[in-house]
Amino acid sequence: MKIKVLGSSAGGGFPQWNCNCRNCDGVRNGTLNAQRRTQSSIVVSANGEDWLLVNASPDLLAQIAAHPELQPARRARDSGIAAVVTMDAQIDHVTGLLMLRERDTPLPLYITDAVLQDLSTGLPVVSILAHYCGVERHAIPLDGASFAVPALPGIRIEALPLSSKAPPYSPHREAPQRGDNIGLTFIDEHSGKRAFYAPGLGALEPHVLEAMNGADLLLVDGTLWTPDEMIELGLSKKTAANMGHLAQTGAGGMIEVLDSIERAGVRKVLIHINNTNPILIEDSPERRRLAEHGIEVAFDGLAFEL
Ligand code: MLT
Ligand code: MN
Ligand code: ZN
């Protein structure tokens, strides 16, 4: 199983177009030891030619251009993106769907009922696609059963409902529905290896910890260093919890959670990193602290073979 990080930043990207925080300013001016990052997305493949796009970011076209393996050029019109799965209805995870409208066959889309509802009403990208390539909808089981995507032979996928947040535009924001946010485990049937992906993790419930404990690769919520980072910088009134994210530091924070996972050989990688997070600075004390805990920070282009 091959996994590639297309975009490792949270919504807004790094640098964010209108942000002059220390990180955004520093990466823009080249005065900080940090790399630019596009918005949240990964791809998964069994054969390296046919890929499942996991979340479709607003930066999708630039991400495709940066990854030639997504353009195998087998026909006049062709793409390595064989299907898409969405994990929530957030703008950073779904607006890229519109960029796939030139397909000549309906887009295979794996999506929960709750997310499909948002994408057919408040942000109706699925309804809009019906006027272009169309969508071949596949439901995602939320009862623990695994599912498969035909273009990824030998890979099983398990979805688990998460406590996080539906987007601000959604009626589910204050009335959560099962399936608004999911985590995904990708299982390679040949190697037996498992990768757990959850860019938005609001709370670590027992079923989430169980999935994390069984994984050989953890790609998890790295949005914020402290719960009130955006408030302290005067950039937002929202805490990490308000946004459905678990900060890295503090009691019960992501560092503590990852410390509790002791599976031999497991890789612990933070992804969906907000532009304010000091871990984006490669030589920061915060980054050193992560390294002391064996935790890596994802970057665009990071690849895994499991
Ligand atoms: C989030 O993950 O909290 C959202 O993506 C933020 C956003 O896109 O505005
Ligand atoms: Mn996001
Ligand atoms: Zn910023």
What report would you give on this structure?
With 306 residues, this protein is an alpha/beta fold. Helix content is 18%, strand content 22%. It contains 9 helices and 14 strands. The strands form 2 sheets. The chain has a 7-stranded mixed β-sheet. Strand 4 (81-85), helix 3 and strand 5 (107-111) form a beta-alpha-beta unit. It binds D-malate (MLT), manganese (II) ion and zinc ion.
Descriptors for this entry?
306 residues; alpha/beta; Metallo-beta-lactamase, Chain A; seven-stranded mixed β-sheet; 9 helices; 14 strands; 18% helix; binds D-malate; binds manganese (II) ion; binds zinc ion
Task: Describe the structure concisely.
This protein has 306 residues and is α/β, with parallel strands linked by helices. The chain contains 9 helices and 14 strands.
Q: How many independent structural domains?
A: 1
CATH architecture: 4-Layer Sandwich
Mean pLDDT: 97
Can you tell me the overall shape? Answer: globular
Total helices: the number is 9
Give unreliable regions as ranges. Answer: none
Count of β-strands: 14
The CATH superfamily is known as Ribonuclease Z/Hydroxyacylglutathione hydrolase-like
Q: Main sheet, how many strands, which sense, barrel?
A: 7 strands, mixed
Structural class: alpha/beta
Q: How much of the polypeptide forms β-strand, as a percent range? A: 15-25%
How far apart lie the N and C ends? Answer: 5 Å
The set of bound ligands, ions and cofactors reads: D-malate, manganese (II) ion, zinc ion
The CATH topology corresponds to: Metallo-beta-lactamase, Chain A
Strand order of the largest sheet: 6-5-4-3-2-1-14
Q: Level of helix content?
A: 10-25%
What order do the SSEs take from the amino end to the carboxyl end, as H and E?
A: EHEEHEHEHHEEEEEHEHHEHEE
CATH class: Alpha Beta
Rg estimate, integer Å: 18 Å
